Amino acid sequence: MKPWRRVGSERLQRTPVFDLHRVRFEPPEGPSPRDFWVVEAPEWINVVPLTDDRRVVLVRQFRYGIEGFTLEIPGGMCDGREPPGEAAARELREETGYEAREIVPLGWVHPNPAIQTNRCHSFLALGARPAGEPKPDPDEAFEVSTVPLEEIPGLVRSGAIRHSLVIAAFHLLELRGI
Q: pTM of the entire structure?
């Protein structure tokens, strides 16, 4: 197979969270160029906070897209050119009030390569411990809880955890043998 060739791009919309582009690609063989819609977003992060007694710090929050609550690990966007590891430590503190002894990269995934340009980086926060009150953004609210690490697969199986990027982070953690 040969890659399609990008022959043009136009930004259609700028938002605080992403930009929407119409991108024109020419197939290597076949019909004339076609338009596709691509979401350009900053790098994202997820962090699996693990306490010294092997409990995972989780957040329950309302998600506007599904108009419902999710059970997740802390996560968010990198601010500007903020390195993903720094964003992981910041989001952990903001969303949970926890800090970690060490932030360890687990890997990254493409959230949706069909229409998005960004990556979601996953981290393990070792030695997570309370360090103060959470400091959520004005449009966020969290309920913070901890569960034993060994209960996570059951929460995924039961559907209590359904966020695909959270499940990907736990899979990357499992691949590390933790």
A: 0.93
